[in-house]
């Protein structure tokens, strides 16, 4: 009782509205409205308008291209500077070891990782719109670069071992091999940068939407497995070839297992020790995040300790532990990338450009949403394009946003890209002044840093359980992206995943949900009749809704679902009528033949028995017998025998979810209207949006039989019109 009273009180407090107006169809509504006059511009006028320049427009374009001009003059030094300095130093001490480590993934000498951690980071400060992301080397992109470098410049370890044992020859070979791989990596950076720059200038920032979150997470998880397996040989200190392309993960694991007996125990101990220290450091940073002023820079600590231990114990000579080796002091002179390599690496550059942009823009959006500012996707493309293309002249390989460094840069108080600039200056100091100090650093330490930084990506395996509960289609996208990238390689895997994601879009449009709607009593609100008990259908009226647009791919399924849901199939009804007509015609024909035979027999009997008396009631009257079993029905009366007949007189198609209609969809809609009209069911369309109405007009949908009077402003308008029409018809 109390619950009922509360419900009534709630209803009394609910706002109400009452509107009295005519029942509007499109013909009537358009007749009462006055369209705004729009003068269409010619192509010449559009070009002239876009080329027109004013001081305000020039300033706007300049600020858009160089965002630093907008925020730097307003930079609040007292509020932001200290946080940016702390953040810059914290990010910088991560940039150093990660730059060295990810260079190994890219199959180039470690110093090129330092170059890639300086030039692009410095350039992004001027052109980027995000205040918090950390640009530089990233595991996934580095792995993709390394795969291309190894494919174009294969590792011929076996032939070298067989042909030469001279250390000088081996050194010259590795030096020549690394030089060629650097050329491939630099060309990739140049080409991917040009692609990103062109996409940004052409306002193609929307391409990132095709890399959905499940796809990216499945792809990066597979990339993490690739990265992990590629670092096993450095962790164990074994000599194996590096593989790329399909099944490279399996080949890499098999190669490591085949050389497992040659494991360098010293390298393994150093590597495992570093992994334990890094995991402990990350756990401390996570648990005491609020109490620590800045995260403990465990990576640089491990690098310093590893370098000191290696130099003090002479691990290279005493225990044959592989070290970083020569780190040239100072910056290299600019050089033009190898243009002749472009045809061989073009497809890979496209994949790297799109993956790099999607990584950067997704992280940028997260931070922008958190801190209340906006980013420009097209400008981010331009910024990344400049960072990669210009950086390639200074021997950098492709870069993007690093998730781990970005989180550190934001959590340590970074407010602007001043923090990124400071981190790049720290890398510059190492390149120019103290880079040689890291020459004894064991490669197993860098492998440990890479492996521990994959921890966050491996946690993405938890997505399987999450998507299983929320969306099976997104789970399928995740699994296809993961399996394809794992087995086919990152390039073909990405292409396969994107293709599959596009196919799921087609599947969803071809397999939408179809509903029959009914009215909530005493309202103009219509809901699915299967969802709510209170919802009732109007007698003789069916309201059909499909949550998809109407176009060539789903027009047939739309028609089939309409017939199934409404229970009215015009083709079946017409076929049944034709069948009934034929059956009735056969019955009439058979009756007439029986009648003729009876008359003929009677005539013969009369002639043969002329002397016998025949009762008047046995004589045929007008050629008919009263007791004849054959019915006397004229062909005009066949309509009384025709079945089935539908009890529905009106069908309303709810076009609220329809975003567009193509020529096939328009023909399908017109066919539906005509077919149902033949069986006595009038069809009308409700809630058709303006763009869809414009498309129908352009496709010559309306004619003498199909007019705008069949289109209604809302479902309720259509229902009321159908009721009036049925009342007048009856």
UniProtKB/TrEMBL annotation:
Residues 531-722 form the STAS domain. The chain crosses the membrane at residues 100-127, 133-150, 184-211, 262-280, 292-313, 341-361, 418-438, 475-507. Keywords: Membrane, Transmembrane, Transmembrane helix. It is a multi-pass membrane protein. GO terms for molecular function: secondary active sulfate transmembrane transporter activity. GO terms for cellular component: membrane. It is found in: Membrane. It comes from the Eukaryota. PANTHER family: SULFATE TRANSPORTER. NCBIfam families: sulP. This is Prestin. It comes from Acanthisitta chloris.
